């Protein structure tokens, strides 16, 4: 098996896909060996990325697919518990998350691309096993 060049990062999306304070882009990864989702969004001109998991109770944050910001587009809001996070830092600013914040995911933006850099605890999903049949299509 050939592992991608992780030092070059893994493609997440084209830069144009992230509109200022707009929808996020999600992808799957392994976090401490468990399959999780991460998301990236553009806030104050910077691309930021976090695990899609509330610090209060581990549930996904988006209230609609890829919608992470509150109605004023100022904060990341947990759709289930109402915990409020700073998009710039991931720090909890209100709610039951206390001092816990969102888990950051390292991304960069260059040459019109957003790229993710895996770490010790955040790894790419393994490629599918070619010996297993693909999942059946939904009716």
The span between the termini is 34 Å
Spatial extent as radius of gyration: 16 Å
Extract low-pLDDT stretches.
none
Question: What proportion of the residues form beta strands (DSSP E)?
Answer: 25-35%
Q: Major β-sheet, in short?
A: 4 strands, antiparallel
CATH topology: Rieske Iron-sulfur Protein
Query: Can you give the mean pLDDT?
Result: 90
CATH architecture: 3-layer Sandwich
How many domains comprise the coordinates?
1
Q: What is the count of β-strands?
A: 10
Structural class: mainly beta
Question: How are the strands of the largest sheet arranged?
Answer: 4-3-2-10
Shape field: globular
Protein name: Rieske (2Fe-2S) protein
Biased composition (Pro residues): 124-139
Domain Rieske: 11-116
GO molecular function: 2 iron, 2 sulfur cluster binding; metal ion binding
Walk me through the structure.
This protein is mainly β and 139 residues long. It has one domain (6-123): Rieske [2Fe-2S] iron-sulphur domain (Rieske Iron-sulfur Protein). Helices cover 0% and strands 32% of the residues. It is built from no helices and 10 strands. Strands 4-3-2-10 form a 4-stranded antiparallel beta sheet, with no helix packed on it. One of its GO terms (molecular function) is metal ion binding. Residues 124-139 have a biased composition (Pro residues). Keywords: 2Fe-2S, Iron, Iron-sulfur, Metal-binding. Pfam families: Rieske. This is Rieske (2Fe-2S) protein.
